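Design request, tokens follow.
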């Protein structure tokens, strides 16, 4: 009876928590909606703390809208705000705090392009960092900082631009010791994700491919630092090879401009702005309206962010993790195609890949859109590899940043056999089955006779389908497709030379490509309309509460932070090479993640 009582107490407590959260959200939402946007001063400097984070798209969390100026900024908002500010006589400059933004190289390049364009309008841009420390991301953080005309750093800080490294664990021996066999296959030799579990060191093809990635990235960073600080490339490379540097050393080498503490920086910016009230956060400036790409022919902007799955996993409105769900994205594309007001489709992809079937579903939707007369342009974010490239290749034009990770044209699949582990634990699994291959995906026993041949047949078909579609879309002959495929990972810059992408740039360049597809003048305006419409926080809460106690238990787990406990712990080790185009998503025993640690 006590157990039953505790169960109902837990259920009612869950309902109470969500009901209270809903009511509070409703009250705050209406309070914010009724609150008029503040009147902005006639002279101002825009301010932004990028250390709060950068996102591909706005948060859908019910509490995300409460952050106002404190939350992460979406890349699109940043770009639109700076483009508006270029011709806004009220705006004198931009002041940004950074140092631990966590941006990828491709994101940094997109932000740098926007800042450079803003500065060309005759306005200043000033950055502050407590330190460019030796933690993950310092090299790219400083690369981003060099887009500003003035860089401040705290006197006790350091400039640890030590370069880029990839650290990959190899667990074959550990798995062997605990009685686990990694029964994995790959197509082809550069599709090296399974090596983590099957080898004790990098294979020659994997090392060659990954080395080319880090070499290209570092070359781009050196070039950016040299141009941003107006120093020779050799000097920039020497600074990297002799880092970490003390703050005084960094200033002596011309790598930073001013050493000072945050209050002094704020005072200097306020003086330049003409007063404390003239320092305006970017978000109220965006809320004022008058943003670019808000009028003219309508273009559907569809985001595809996260691992590719057929359907988005059940989650609560408090869980803001992103998935590229094929059913949602296909529906968005179909809706855009059927809307006569939509003249073109702009896909913003940031995905490491995922399910083959799901990727193919979206690929077909893109092909169908083009056949029905809607131009489709793809803008790649940090990563559009494997399944992400599978989708992208269907578009009319592919735009990528030089540092974008793409390609990875290949497939891997298989399972882990844990039979030996259970024997060590004294557990003996038995099964009753009907059908020769019914236990094919069971992790508790090896493949039945002949099943591995079926796995090979599936993988061969997927690889032929992938490479065949790339060859057709990119007009490659057999020799050319073999040279770009086999699982090779490409940076955007190298992918351009290889013929896998069409142009370098970010969302702004993709908009320009969309105008060209619509035969519009370069200075013409288009209206970007998000598809599907982003649900309001209240809509998400009410929709979820109506789902019953099952949904509510998921919500409590997410509210307590348990839903992302393991994924968050792994986040720093997963890096950019996860979610490769996998094999048909078998129900059990499937390899999902490739642990890898990226430091730059």
């Amino acid at each position: 009876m006590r157990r039953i009582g505790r169960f109902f107490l837990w259920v009612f407590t869950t309902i109470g928590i969500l009901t209270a959260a809903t009511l509070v959200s409703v009250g705050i939402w209406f309070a914010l909606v009724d609150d008029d946007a503040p009147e902005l001063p006639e002279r101002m400097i825009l301010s932004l703390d990028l250390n709060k984070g950068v996102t591909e798209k706005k948060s859908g969390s019910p509490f995300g809208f409460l952050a106002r100026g404190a939350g992460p900024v979406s890349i699109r908002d940043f770009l639109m705000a700076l483009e508006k500010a270029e011709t806004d006589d009220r705006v004198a400059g931009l002041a940004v705090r950074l140092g631990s933004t966590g941006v990828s190289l491709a994101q940094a390049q997109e932000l740098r392009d926007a800042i450079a364009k803003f500065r060309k309008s005759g306005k200043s841009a000033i950055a502050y960092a407590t330190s460019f420390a030796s933690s993950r991301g310092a090299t790219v953080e400083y690369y981003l900082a060099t887009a500003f005309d003035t860089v401040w750093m705290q006197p006790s800080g350091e400039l640890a631009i030590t370069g880029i490294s990839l650290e990959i664990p190899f667990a074959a021996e550990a798995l062997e010791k605990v009685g686990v066999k990694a029964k994995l296959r790959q197509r082809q030799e550069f599709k090296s994700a399974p090596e983590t579990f099957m080898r004790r060191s990098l294979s020659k093809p994997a090392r060659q491919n990954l080395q080319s990635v880090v070499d290209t990235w570092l070359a781009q960073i050196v070039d950016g630092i040299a141009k941003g600080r107006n120093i020779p490339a050799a000097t920039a490379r020497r600074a990297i090879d002799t880092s970490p540097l003390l703050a005084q050393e960094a200033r002596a080498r011309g790598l930073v401009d001013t050493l000072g503490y945050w209050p002094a920086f704020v005072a200097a910016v306020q003086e330049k702005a003409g007063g404390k009230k003239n320092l305006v956060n970017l978000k109220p400036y965006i809320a004022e309206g008058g943003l670019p790409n808000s009028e003219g022919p309508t273009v559907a902007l569809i985001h595809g962010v996260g691992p590719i799955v057929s359907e988005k996993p059940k989650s609560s409105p408090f869980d803001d993790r992103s998935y590229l769900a094929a059913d949602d994205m296909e529906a968005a594309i179909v809706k855009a195609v059927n809307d006569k007001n939509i003249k073109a489709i702009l896909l913003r992809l940031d995905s490491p890949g995922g399910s083959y079937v799901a990727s193919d579903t979206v690929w077909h939707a893109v092909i169908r859109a083009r056949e029905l007369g809607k131009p489709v342009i793809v803008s790649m974010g940090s990563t559009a590899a494997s399944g992400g490239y599978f989708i992208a290749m269907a578009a009319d034009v592919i735009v990528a940043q030089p540092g974008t990770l793409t390609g990875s044209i290949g497939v891997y699949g298989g399972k882990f056999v844990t039979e030996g582990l259970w024997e060590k634990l004294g557990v003996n699994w038995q099964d009753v089955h009907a059908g020769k291959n019914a236990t094919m995906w069971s992790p508790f026993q090896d493949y039945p006779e002949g099943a591995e041949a079926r796995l090979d047949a599936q993988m061969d078909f997927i690889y032929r389908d992938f490479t065949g579609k790339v060859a057709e879309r990119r007009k490659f002959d057999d020799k050319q497709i073999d040279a770009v495929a086999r699982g090779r990972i490409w940076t955007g810059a190298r992918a351009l030379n290889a013929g896998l992408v069409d142009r370098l740039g970010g969302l702004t360049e993709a908009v320009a490509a969309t105008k060209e597809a619509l035969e519009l003048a370069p200075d013409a305006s288009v209206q970007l309309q998000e598809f599907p419409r982003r649900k309001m926080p209240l809509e998400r809460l009410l929709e979820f509460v109506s789902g019953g106690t099952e949904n509510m238990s998921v919500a409590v787990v997410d509210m307590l932070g348990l839903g992302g406990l393991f994924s968050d712990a792994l986040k720093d080790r997963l890096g950019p090479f996860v979610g490769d185009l996998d094999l048909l998503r078998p129900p059990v025993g499937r390899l999902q993640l490739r642990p890898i640690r990226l430091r730059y």
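Comment from the thread starter after seeing the answer: thanks! The longest strand covers residues 342-351.
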